Amino acid sequence: MARQEPPRTPAQSADDAAGGTLARIRAALPSLAPSERRVADAVLADPGQASELSISALGERADTSVATVMRFCRAIGITNYPQLRLALAAAAAREHALGGERPAPGTDISATDTLDQIVSKIVYNEVRALEDSGAELDIEALGRAVDAVAGARRIDIFGIGASAFVGQDLHQKLHRIGHMAFIWTDRHSALTATALLGPGDVALAISHSGETEDTVEPLQAAAERGATTIALTNVARSTLAESADLVLTTCARETPFRSGATVSRIAQLALIDCLFVGVAQRSYDATTAALQKTYGAVQRRKRPQPPRRTPAAD
């Protein structure tokens, strides 16, 4: 019998909602209209201050209209402006409680940044991407993806460029525990592979933007063959997401200086780990045995460690 999680307290639920509001705003950025994105940027720059503004004042700050602010609210799943103000106030309090002055999420590297500031921005944005992706992850979709992969006859993974590295990581993990998995990193090979797919198979495509044609087309072809399709993307309203049976979304914001940056791959890798561990847990003993065998297969290739020198006696 599955272990029952203890019920969330009102304080915990409110804290989750506070963190989730900013995560939803960041995740929605790529799909917002330019005027709505200005509202999002104004809110993310200082959630606490934005929570104190009237709707017209926020519109002026974002150089847009009250109607656009309302459209922005609906785009991130909030029904009215007072609800947005409450959510931003709670998020600001949560940010303060987490401690200290930190870079604004998504802040790009500037020409005048010191090395300390570069490290601070990179680490903060990568940690934030992990936190936001975990907060916004659709657990039901993840569970269905785990079911599909665990029971699949074969799993074909599609990824181009930086996303290919993430796909290779999943391929290696699944292969090590005995699943028939393949990774395809160019469109022709991917399309060729989809010709052999059918019901009972899984096709998983990875694309940060969700608009990479070399990834979208093979996933759509796999769907036409009857395979279960899974999209891993940062944009829930992307073409890739709309083409998939199941969607796993990250919440990582790339910036002009760091397009294709590690922050997006780290968020993708975290979700891949969640998927893999869920699959591995379904056959715990067999997985443990397989991992031990595959580890032992390469252990003899490691150089022996030299004996440690014993300090001379006084």
Looking at how many chains there are and whether they match, the oligomeric state comes to: single chain
Q: What is the approximate shape?
A: globular
The span between the termini is: 61 Å
Low-confidence stretches: 1-18
Q: Note the total helix count.
A: 14
Order of helices and strands: HHHHHHHHEHEHEHEHEHH
Structure, explained:
This protein is of the alpha/beta class and 314 residues long. 57% of the residues lie in helices and 8% in strands. The protein is built from 14 helices and five strands. Strands 2-1-3-4-5 form a five-stranded parallel β-sheet, with helices on both faces. It is globular. The termini are far apart. The relative contact order is 0.11. The N terminus is likely disordered.
Compose a concise summary of this entry.
By secondary structure, the chain is of the alpha/beta class. The protein has helices spanning 10-28, 34-45, 47-50, 55-61, 66-75, 81-98, 115-136, 139-150, 162-176, 187-194, 213-224, 239-242, 262-282, 284-299, and strands at residues 155-159, 181-184, 202-207, 228-233, 246-249. Helix 1 crosses helix 7 (115-136) and helix 7 (115-136) runs parallel beside helix 13 (262-282).
